[in-house]
Protein 1
Amino acid sequence: MTLVIAGHNLEKSPDYSSAWTGIKDSKLKQAGLFVAADSAITKPLSSGYKTLLGGFKKTYSILVKVWEPYFVGEYFHSYMSPYYEGCCFVAIAGSTLTAQHVMNSITEHLGHLRITHIRDEDGVGKYTVIRHCQKNPLEKNAGIDQWDENMFLHSDMDAVITADTIIDNIEYSIRESLTSAKQYKLDENDLKSMYTEFAAGAFCPVNKIHKLFTFRMKLELNLDGVYEIGIVREEIPSDKVAVLGMRTQFEARAQKTLDSCIKNSEPTAEAVFNFLNEAIDEVISSGNGEIDRPSVLKILNQNNFEKVRFTKR
């Protein structure tokens, strides 16, 4: 099992005194996203869980590269250099084999995003970001179609590089990775063994905000009576936590920890990390062995994903 807790990193603003009342005001401000996680790999036993190894990485920094089109005169030539480079994070809980397969897809797609220009059925054009494996109007008639020199200005390209673009491609990667399961006649137990949850956070360079989402697998029985894997996507607002893994046992208490921080204007990341370690102590004391240290706390602030706390076993 796993315990991962992610949320919006809220920190205290500088104190200031009102010129009229002299009352100090200390409010919480957005300062990125946090993710706290244990690091145990376990296997289920009849009497609980057995820890197989510790120090397993459950939070990953993913490089985001959005490549700009390169023109020779009025003709598209290739994608030679990235226009935007940043990072996001993905956290995992569940099957390590499924997670590895999905993470490979996410890394591949986010590292090769491309800016292009498409037209809809009515001939209305728009700038957009696509994956390198998608059909691209620029590449379709490269060396034939002529493009105006006033297209693909910085203002055009800046507007389409958003957190939603990153998150949408993470969701696509998860779904695309799991489509191969459809060709096999898997039963409900097979699909349960594949079950994996994901949390993903990204910074939006357009709106200057951070966004946090969860992606949870859902078993769906199709019309042929065969189970397929669906994905439930949920955005996590700043007053909520996202819990992966031991959600039933600890989500409510993790949320209470966050609620208390917001009510008392206390920083959220450290408090939630302390709670995660309390949860680990409880599980260890029970002899169940589902989660264990080392535990880690990381912060995503714009395009910097940094480890800020680490607790050894």
Protein 2
Amino acid sequence: MGFSKKYDIDEYLENNELNSRIYKVLLSLQDNKGGNIQLRRSPLEIFNHSYSLYEKLNNEKHPENKVQPLMTKTQESFLDYETSIIFSCIYVILYFSDSMNSHIDFCMHKIKNIVDPLYFKFFEPLLSEELSIQSLPKSFEQIKQQAGEIENLNDREMFYNDILTRFKQAKSKRNIVQQIEYEIELIKKNKELINTSGNIENDDEKTGATTKIRSVVIMEMLRKMQCGKANNDLTKICKLIAFLTGRSYDKIYNETQKGIILNNYHSKEITEINKILSDLNIQISVEKNKQY
């Protein structure tokens, strides 16, 4: 989707924390608080031109090669110091963008090298501030991948709600907010279906260990008996795990084939199972961040 010129500054500021902070910098430059040349252009003009060039750079295969030509072109309509302000805005926008362009970092490096540092310094604090934007996942795919590690639907819903709250506080990721809200609604519907059908496996998930933990413990016990993956076909091991746990063979096989890795989500279960194994004097322990 290409750039669309805006005619009201609120179109840039509404629900956008980043633009609101850039706007404050532009207002300070209009007030000449930095001791440099007073900015006489309106923030709306600066935003329109900045976002127009941002779109052009973001869509270029090698945006770093277009920075200087675009700056020269900008200087035909804007003064040199205004051009530096515009490209400083572009740098900040790129810094917080979700761009999939692999050359954006080179582009930002080029911008920083050619803008006037006397004006870029006013925008640098935005880069070091702990914006809620920066600490959030960069894409919905990344969020969904993290959520996929959470097998219990109640916990997964809580995870999405937490992320959603943080995005709403950032007020800058409307598309992702909509996707997360849709995903939460989907989980709620799945939970209703499960509760309606009296799904036994889900009840087991709520009161027992996750499939990953159960699979790892069984595989480790088989390994201790010298009957593990080094001695037996993986499909046969997965059939045993599915039989003993009542879980989906296909899911177990897919997980074990690529290698099961436990993370912080499994910490409580890891502590619990390790204590059980220790009390039974079984010389096995389950660990995080280890591939099984």
